[in-house]
Amino acid sequence: MDGTTKGISVNITGTEVYVRIVGRGTFQNGQPLRRYAMEMLGRGCDQFFVDLNQCQGMDSTFLGVLAGIGLRLSQGGHAGKIHVVNVSARNVELLQTLGLDRLFDVNFVGRDHTHHMFPTETTFQMLPDSDLVDTSKSLNKRDTANFMLESHNNLVKADPRNAPKFQDLTKFLREKVGDQPASQNPKP
Amino acid sequence: MKDFRIEQESCGNIQLIRLQGSLDMYSFPRLESQLQTLFQQGRYCLMLDCSQLDYIGSAGLGALIGFAKQAREHDGDLKLLRVPERIYKIVELLGFTKVLQVYNTEETAIASFQKP
């Protein structure tokens, strides 16, 4: 796979999951990542390595997906962890602003990762619908609102200081979720 | 990725704020600070020109709802102007068009502030 193709690619080795984000992490490609992560968590994977080397930025919904994985891994005193590696100064600031640096193991750009080398590029698989090419067409409004609400709730669970930052958005999303009929074909 | 830039000009009692680049969690505090300053000055009629915007994040959009609400409480509003199609799809998908008014031209946006 071309390492510059935008989107989210994944690899699994034993109970370790490797995720590479190229381009932006957004509410759109956060949905396929969430689905994949839930499946891997169900299979007992307990170490997630997220490479942000080529990640231009992440929106709060995407960060909420990562927070959700981190919260799930930390439930019940498990040793599971989410490790974010090759994190730029800009992305570090985002993580710190939301208090996620305390939930994740954060490795800055330039730190030696030889003990957690990523598998070779060719073994990664691109997650479907993660390339942000007009993905909005395939998204259901209510499912998207539900997904965004869950993501922002994760951010508040991860750090209660996030509540006022997202209060307008979460209020709007709660009303929206309550307003609309359920999807006839909900995504799994 | 373009650097985020904000330019502001007055059209009578309406403030036109031109946004350029990416409005994400990293850049949003700059806009937030500018909007808060305008509110402190008693300026509640705001138009955000999004024509040069190449990205807007979900949290930024959510926060704009709060600013629009505050503006309306003071007989003003916060309206979006010239939203690129790619961004409009997101705004529409998330249902923000129900609470944030979007205009294609400066003239129609300005006129909408004048309506009783």
Task: Report on this structure.
The complex is a heterodimer of chains A (188) and B (116). By secondary structure, chain A is an alpha/beta fold. Chain A has one domain (7-178): 2-Layer Sandwich (Transcription Regulator spoIIAA), CATH 3.30.750.24. In chain A, 36% of the residues lie in helices and 21% in strands. Chain A has five helices and seven strands, in the order E-E-H-E-E-H-E-H-E-E-H-H. In chain A, helix 1 (30-42) runs parallel beside helix 2 and helix 2 crosses helix 4 (141-158). The longest helix of chain A is centred in the last third of the chain and has 18 residues, at 141-158. The model of chain A is unreliable at 184-188 (pLDDT under 50). Chain B has 116 residues and is α/β, with parallel strands linked by helices. Chain B has one domain (5-114): Transcription Regulator spoIIAA. In chain B, 41% of the residues lie in helices and 31% in strands. Chain B has four helices and five strands, in the order ββαβαβαβα. Chain B has a five-stranded mixed β-sheet. In chain B, strand 3, helix 2 and strand 4 form a beta-alpha-beta unit. At the A-B interface, strand 4, helix 2, helix 3, helix 4 and helix 5 of A face helix 2 and helix 3 of B.
